[in-house]
Design a protein that fits this description.
By secondary structure, this protein is α/β, with parallel strands linked by helices. It folds into two domains: 30-59 and 320-478, Aspartate Aminotransferase, domain 1 (Alpha-Beta Complex), CATH 3.90.1150.10; 67-316, 3-Layer(aba) Sandwich (Aspartate Aminotransferase, domain 2), CATH 3.40.640.10. 40% of the residues lie in helices and 12% in strands. It is built from 19 helices and 14 strands. It has helices spanning 30-39, 67-73, 84-97, 108-119, 133-141, 169-179, 203-216, 227-237, 246-255, 280-287, 289-293, 304-316, 320-323, 325-339, 357-360, 370-382, 421-436, 454-457, 466-478, and strands at 54-55, 101-105, 125-128, 145-148, 186-190, 219-223, 259-263, 273-277, 352-356, 384-385, 387-389, 409-413, 444-448, 459-462. It starts with 29 loop residues before the first helix and ends with a helix. Bound molecules: pyridoxal-5'-phosphate (PLP). Its cofactor is pyridoxal 5'-phosphate. Residues 55-428 form the Aromatic amino acid beta-eliminating lyase/threonine aldolase domain.
Length: 482
């Protein structure tokens, strides 16, 4: 939404909403932040929010709701079975995502569990543009393997390619020929590919994937958790859709998939999730798994209040001004950091800004987790909590060896409609300072490593006294300032 021009020529993302509920934030002294890191094993997932100033860990379940969502929550119909709230949500799914059948699940990964349980068998292969942590964990849990089929351009940090999330069509066909269509339960396409920096794919790319899926009779599963923003960027970047509405683009995309699932913690700024399809046979195959894992078919583990919020939130996804704030703030911060020389994933994607720790911390070997170290250092000097998206977020291979990530990123999530521009400018300022003092950042090592999804609860420690040195430099430059 860059339609509003400033007389002074500045290009500033103007918020088209106002703040009517506020939550006080706390900026604690740097010494307390060091203690907090020590208590939390230098893992930002394990910090307590009382020590966090700007929480940029994730955009999951942390988005600001609208007045209409909050109002709808008050009208929720509490019933174990047949709740009116559910039928309103079912209608919203059909209106917005264009799918007739909807199965509620408590969050996105629950959909991944159900789909993997239903379709993935030992020895199967699931081709995808790129993995998401929980999607991969469920596929491998059921004995499957994944094949990531992005184009090389996707791994270029400083790129101007508008659709780095595109599936490599030639590789897809090759993989199908080598492994055989019958060993491929589905092709997974992730909108706004999360782990490579929230990078979108184009509608044309999805059409090309559809053509191959049809040729080999394989289903397409669309992970639509970040579909709204992907559609927003399609309108901005794909010529054919420059005059299309959000609703038109989203329906074209979901229409190209056999199964659509999503985390409502992102799509619709509420909590919950779902699986939807137009295919009655698929619906029948999956239906029985919802009461087994989630809850009865008209609530699926989601509270009725959240069901109402999801229904309204889905309709609000059709409104570009409700979707634009997060991606526009991200583009603002990406451009600002880039201008200061801080290496960030370009072009700007969705859900957050992704700082390239491999470059910022080129002096830290990958076995000492440069992205984890950068996330810890940023929290230490600013109270900003980001998330490691690098080798710590990877899982070890079947022999217990480290699998180093293609990219070592620190993600600074920009939850929808939560932060103000001065807070974004604070992020710009502190990240720039840290970049200029990057030589002081040192590595980390595990002291406690859980066997599954280790990044959530794992504990680490610094390999030297680098945090103390960083604090000393911070005090030299900022004095007693927090
Ligand atoms: C967050 C996310 C998921 C998982 O959703 P949860 O609600 O956190 O379980 C799956 N896919 C993508 C692309 C996501 O961003």
């Amino acid at each position: 939404m860059n339609e509003i021009k400033f007389y002074n020529g500045e290009n500033i993302p103007l918020e088209l909403h106002k703040v009517r509920i506020v939550q006080k934030l706390h900026l604690v002294p740097i010494e307390r932040r060091l203690e907090a890191l020590q208590e939390g094993g230098f893992n930002t997932f394990r910090l307590n929010t009382k020590d966090v100033f700007l929480d940029m860990l994730t955009d999951s379940g942390t988005n600001a709701m609208s007045d209409n969502q909050l109002a709808a929550m008050m009208q929720a119909d509490d019933a174990y079975a047949g709740s009116q709230s559910f039928f309103r949500l079912q209608k919203a799914v059909e209106d917005v995502l264009g799918k007739k059948y909807y199965l509620p699940v408590h969050q996105g990964r629950a959909a991944e569990n159900i789909l993997s349980n239903a379709y993935v068998r030992k020895g199967n292969l699931v081709p995808m543009n790129y993995h998401f942590t929980t999607a991969m964990a469920h596929i491998t849990q059921y004995g499957g393997k994944i094949a990531e089929l992005l184009y090389d351009e996707a791994y270029v940090i400083n790129s101007s390619h508008p659709f780095k999330g595109n599936m490599n069509i030639e590789k897809l066909e090759e993989v199908i020929k080598v492994h055989g269509a019958k060993n491929i339960p589905f092709i997974r396409m992730e909108a706004s590919t999360n782990l490579i920096g929230g990078q979108p794919f184009s509608v044309q790319n999805l059409r090309d994937v559809r053509a191959i899926a049809d040729k080999y009779n394989i289903r397409i599963v669309l992970d639509a958790s970040l579909l709204g923003e992907n559609a927003y960027l399609v309108i901005q970047r794909e010529e054919e859709f420059k005059d299309s509405t959000m609703g038109e683009v989203m329906k074209i995309m979901t229409g190209l998939a056999d199964i659509v699932y999503f985390s409502a913690r992102k799509l619709s700024s509420s909590r919950g999730g779902g699986i939807c399809t137009d295919n009655a046979d698929i619906y029948k195959e999956l239906e029985a798994l919802v009461p087994l894992f989630e809850g009865f078919l008209t609530y699926g583990g989601i509270s009725v209040r959240e069901i109402e919020a999801m229904a309204v939130g889905l309709y609000e996804t059709l409104d570009e001004t409700m979707i634009s704030q997060s991606p526009d703030f991200i583009a603002y911060l990406v451009n600002a950091l880039d201008a200061h020389g801080v290496p960030v994933v370009k072009p700007a994607g969705v859900l957050g800004v992704h700082v390239d720790a491999m470059q910022v911390c080129e002096h830290i070997p990958q076995k000492e987790y440069p992205a984890g170290a950068l996330a810890a250092a940023l929290f230490l000097i600013s109270g900003i909590r980001g998330m490691e998206r690098g080798s710590i977020s990877n899982q070890r291979d079947e022999y217990g060896n480290e699998t180093y990530a293609d990219m070592e990123l620190v993600r600074l999530a920009v939850p929808r409609r939560v932060f103000t521009l001065s807070q974004i400018k604070y992020v710009e300022d502190r990240m720039t300072w840290l970049y200029e003092n990057r030589a002081l950042i040192g590595g980390l090592r595990f002291v406690y490593e859980p066997p599954v999804l280790r990044f959530f609860m794992g504990g680490l420690e610094p390999v030297s006294d680098w945090p103390q040195k960083l604090i000393a430099k911070f005090k030299e430059d900022f004095g007693e300032s927090l």
